[in-house]
TrEMBL record:
It is found in: Cytoplasm. This is 6-phosphofructokinase. It comes from the Bacteria. The keyword Nucleotide-binding applies. The gene is pfkA1.
Amino acid sequence: MKNIAVLTSGGDAPGMNAALRAIVLTCLQYKYTITGYYHGYNGLINGESKQIHVDDVNGIIGRGGTILKSARCPAMLSDNGIKQAVSTLMKDKIDALIVIGGDGSFAGLLEIAKYWQGQVIGIPGTIDNDVDQTDFTIGFSTAVNTAIEAIDKIRDTADAFERVFIVEVMGRHSGFITFNVGIASAAEQVLSFENFDCVNKETRLNELSNSIKNAQSNRHSSYLIVIAENLWPEGTTELAKNLTELTGIDCTPCILGYIQRGGSPVAKDRLLATKLGVASVQALAEGKTNLMMGEQNNTVVEVPLRQSINHQKGVSKSLIKAQTDILSVPKQSQI
Ligand SMILES: Nc1ncnc2c1ncn2[C@@H]1O[C@H](COP(=O)(O)OP(=O)(O)O)[C@@H](O)[C@H]1O
Ligand SMILES: O=P(O)(O)OC[C@H]1O[C@](O)(COP(=O)(O)O)[C@@H](O)[C@@H]1O
């Protein structure tokens, strides 16, 4: 018998529920009990928990968000908070803790493992895809699809008005969403941390404004820039204002925001979440600990949890090069 605990932490991601469902069904197989802690690490610190049964996870595979709720929990950044979390795990006689979250959540789990003897497993769930040792994180594919769907609609109205739009997408400080969304929506420019620095803002503004003016003087079409959040120091709205002034052409900002975090997970995320959920309980049954379950080349992998938060994974260089050298230049045939 094992008493397995699970929580979801950090930004919610479509597919977290699917992972929880897979965990619960696999635990049923092993006759393990499941304790769900609510509101991320806050639930662990405050002892906010509930036994999770199969009935609780019926019909949740297609639901966005997380039925366990999620949160950021600043208390975990102090020794006191971590020790409180550990004391709840001991009081509740938990044998193993599965955390579904991003790199921050895994850093928290590693802290817990320093003071607690139980088994710990991380499942990568974040729309940002910024977790190492897994090709994709749960939620990334859905977020990309959601953003593309929104931008396709923006393109229609942009085409009709021959207008310039600057669309901001999420990703905190990594460009996985920006590049994938920008390329898949045929953006004229993709601006992200990996290909655009703002050290000399004047130069950057002039380059962008020249590019917009050239493109718009030669053709009657739309012009879309997909930009990463937190890239332009004064924000995307200010960038749009500056470019409008410089070009004399209306540049309209559009911040997609939280729409990218919600919604029903696409098949790819449901399947990834299910595979990783099943594998995590199987690993616990084999006595394993301190692991992240990930997927590489379509195969589930178990990697040391510590290796998942080294921030070594980057946007594919060939994708960045293709955008810079080929895709961002308006083609003669489009003019
Ligand atoms: N270095 C750390 N030590 C302990 N806990 C951490 C650490 N970094 C993050 N956490 C915990 O994990 C939570 C989620 O992390 P955050 O970075 O906000 O999201 P994500 O897990 O999606 O990357 C934080 O609110 C905090 O409770
Ligand atoms: O919900 P908040 O606290 O405003 O955070 C916004 C951030 O959360 C995300 O949506 C997801 O990030 P995490 O999964 O790392 O928490 C980022 O893309 C964004 O920068």
